[in-house]
Amino acid sequence: MRRREFLSIPAVALGGTLLYTLRKEPFIVHAQAQDGIVNVPLKFFSAEEAKTVAAATARIFPSDASGPGANEAGVAIYIDRQLAGPYGRDKYRYTKGPWVQSVPEHGYQAKETPREIYKAGIPTLSDNFASLTPAQQDEKLQSMESTTFFRLLRTHTIEGMFCDPMHGGNAGMIGWQLIGFPGPRMSYRDEIEQYRSEAFRPKPISLAQLVGHPVKGWEEEAE
Predict the structure, then answer these.
(1) CA distance linking residue 80 with residue 43, whole number of Å
(2) Mean pLDDT, to the nearest integer, of 116-130?
(3) Is residue 123 domain-resident?
(4) Which of 54, 85, 192, 198 could form a disulfide with 76 if both were Cys (CB 3.0 to 4.6 A apart)?
């Protein structure tokens, strides 16, 4: 059993959003802040791997004038949780041969699991990726756009931005606020008359808020 590792994130840089979110249910991850630093316990990545992944996702979906990005949404935590769970070990994907190149519409057809793809892909970003300038990071990512690792990383970045918060990403539902998604509401019947002829801009709610009790994602499934 390896030593427990953490992803350390400056709380000030996040505006307190991640710290606040990770302390509330139904989030499984818990954080403690000391000297302005949020230490998030990792389930799959080492601390250095998580730091590299966080830096890469922040360039794929950066924060800018239009709103927050991958770091503020906790995307690296989402990826860490997914790789630690059944998805990461390909529990539900058919993984027997033959492994052949196919058309993109058929999806990923190779043998390696998501865990193996990340373990092999992260070192290709370089040991000091997180300390590179944004321009250098972009250049490195652009050079590997055709690789399976980059395509998976990009997909996971988008998922982490816009998933239900119970999966570890979309902290504070900032991704949903960014695109105006109201959450998994089952009906708008009660609002039809109330907002007739008016713009309806409800505050997003998570699945746990909707059902009224904590909800666990499939990544919490035991080995």
Answers:
(1) 6
(2) 95
(3) yes
(4) 54
Tokens 């710290």 found at:
19
Residue 53 lies in a domain: yes
6: its two tokens: 């953490």
Length of the chain: 223
Query: What confidence score (pLDDT) does residue 134 get?
Result: 96
Distance in angstroms between the alpha carbons of the first and the last residue of the chain: 14
Query: For 7, phi and psi rounded to 5 degrees?
Result: -100, 115
Name the token pair of 221: 């499934």
Q: Say how far apart CA 117 and CA 109 lie, in whole Å.
A: 13
Contacts of residue 8, defined as CB under 8 A and 6 or more positions apart, other chains included, come to: 37, 38, 39, 40, 47
Q: Which residues of 171-203 are buried (b: 16+ CB within 10 A; e: fewer)?
A: bbbbbbebeeeebeeeeeeeeeeeeeeeeeeee
Give a yes or no: residue 1 inside a domain: no
pTM: 0.83
Residues 35-48 have pLDDT tens digits of: 556 677 899 999 99
- pLDDT at position 100 is 80
Give the burial class of 78: count Cβ atoms within 10 A of its Cβ; 0-12 exposed, 13-18 middle, 19 or more buried.
Answer: buried
Q: Which domain holds residue 81?
A: 6-220
How high is the mean pLDDT of the chain?
83
Lowest-confidence segment of 26-30, 73-77, 111-115 by average pLDDT? 26-30
Q: Would 83 be classed as within a structural domain?
A: yes
Residue 139 DSSP class: H
Domains: count for the chain: 1
Confidence band, pLDDT 50/70/90 cuts, at residue 97: confident
